TrEMBL record:
<dbReference type="GO" id="GO:0008810">
    <property type="term" value="F:cellulase activity"/>
</dbReference>
<keyword id="KW-0136">Cellulose degradation</keyword>
<feature type="domain" description="Glycoside hydrolase family 9">
    <location>
        <begin position="1"/>
        <end position="259"/>
    </location>
</feature>
<feature type="active site">
    <location>
        <position position="237"/>
    </location>
</feature>
<keyword id="KW-0119">Carbohydrate metabolism</keyword>
<dbReference type="InterPro" id="IPR012341">
    <property type="entry name" value="6hp_glycosidase-like_sf"/>
</dbReference>
<comment type="similarity">
    <text>Belongs to the glycosyl hydrolase 9 (cellulase E) family.</text>
</comment>
<dbReference type="Pfam" id="PF00759">
    <property type="entry name" value="Glyco_hydro_9"/>
</dbReference>
<protein>
    <recommendedName>
        <fullName>Endoglucanase</fullName>
        <ecNumber>3.2.1.4</ecNumber>
    </recommendedName>
</protein>
<feature type="active site">
    <location>
        <position position="246"/>
    </location>
</feature>
<keyword id="KW-0326">Glycosidase</keyword>
<dbReference type="GO" id="GO:0030245">
    <property type="term" value="P:cellulose catabolic process"/>
</dbReference>
<keyword id="KW-0378">Hydrolase</keyword>
<keyword id="KW-0624">Polysaccharide degradation</keyword>
<dbReference type="InterPro" id="IPR001701">
    <property type="entry name" value="Glyco_hydro_9"/>
</dbReference>
<dbReference type="InterPro" id="IPR033126">
    <property type="entry name" value="Glyco_hydro_9_Asp/Glu_AS"/>
</dbReference>
<dbReference type="InterPro" id="IPR008928">
    <property type="entry name" value="6-hairpin_glycosidase_sf"/>
</dbReference>
Length: 279
């Protein structure tokens, strides 16, 4: 451990949090309004709640817990965990520290909305399909929440088993018998929608000819998660289809967090057997 570095990080976190509290607002409604069509924000209270809870965990200063409670907006079940919507993480972190069943109920309802019988569409092969753009991102993020909830005593093996089914789908238990994580296994996407991946080694040029190349991309984006299949498990490996083949940092965030959770549970011997694939 490095106590001095830890204190430096904590001081920076407090400073950033104070700045955010002093300048509340939606960034894409300011001078960078063009961001709206890319990663526009619909609110900030959920992010402030999560930040406050992380600071409370680090400091045990009650003001951060009170701030988090003040920024809690929950009455409705969250639509998704994503770059724009952190409500369910706010609720989970609040439950961890308060054991208030109001927060627990919202977390449990969120996960169950993604499970069979919930409001989220299920593909024939068992993927919780929330939306066509980054379909795997939403399923992986929900799987991460399910595992974190199970760690906190919510949902138990039922949530763990469902999370396993989603990650297993992503890694090959699907109609296409394809790992949607590039470089994992022998059958994975070869044409991600990613400029750098599509370019040959320098000094060779890179332009539309490389974009239109019908062959595999010359650079391997090992570990990247592509957007994913359609609502009936359909998928084509084509860099021209950015909806299904785009790769992004936020696509990987919940996915690798879910993998870390599964690895930890497997190591501790508290992971149920993998459910049988549907395809």
């Amino acid at each position: 451990s490095d106590a001095a570095y830890s204190q430096r990080l904590l001081a920076s976190a407090k400073s950033l949090y104070d700045f955010a509290n002093a300048h509340k607002g939606i960034y894409n409604k300011g001078p960078i309004s063009d961001a709206t069509s890319y990663y526009g924000s619909t609110g900030y209270k959920d992010e402030l709640c999560v930040a406050a809870m992380e600071l409370y965990k680090a400091t045990k200063d009650a003001k951060y817990l009170n701030d988090a409670k003040a920024n809690f907006e929950g009455n409705d079940v969250a639509w998704a965990l994503s770059w724009d919507d952190n409500h369910v993480m706010c609720e989970l972190l609040l439950y961890e520290e308060t054991k208030d069943n109001r927060y627990k109920g919202l977390v449990e309802s969120f996960v169950r909305s993604y499970m069979p019988g919930g409001s989220v569409h299920q593909t024939p092969c068992g993927l919780a399909w929330r939306d066509q753009w980054g379909s795997l991102r939403y399923a992986a993020n929900a799987a991460f929440v399910a595992l974190a909830a199970a760690e906190d005593g919510i949902g138990g093996d039922q949530f763990k088993s469902w999370a396993l089914s989603q990650i297993n789908y992503i890694l090959g238990d699907n109609r296409n018998h394809l790992s949607y994580e590039i470089g994992f296994g022998s059958n994975y996407p070869r044409q991600p929608h990613h400029r750098g991946s599509s370019c040959p080694n320098p000094p060779a040029g890179c332009g539309w000819n490389e974009f239109n190349n019908p062959g595999p991309s010359p650079q391997l984006l090992k570990g990247a998660l592509v957007g994913g299949p359609g609502q009936n498990d359909e998928y084509a490996d084509s860099r021209k289809d950015y909806t299904k083949n785009e790769v992004t940092c936020d696509y990987n965030a919940g996915f690798q967090s879910a993998l870390a959770g599964l690895a930890s549970m497997a190591k501790r011997g508290c992971l149920p057997n993998s459910p049988a694939p549907k395809c």
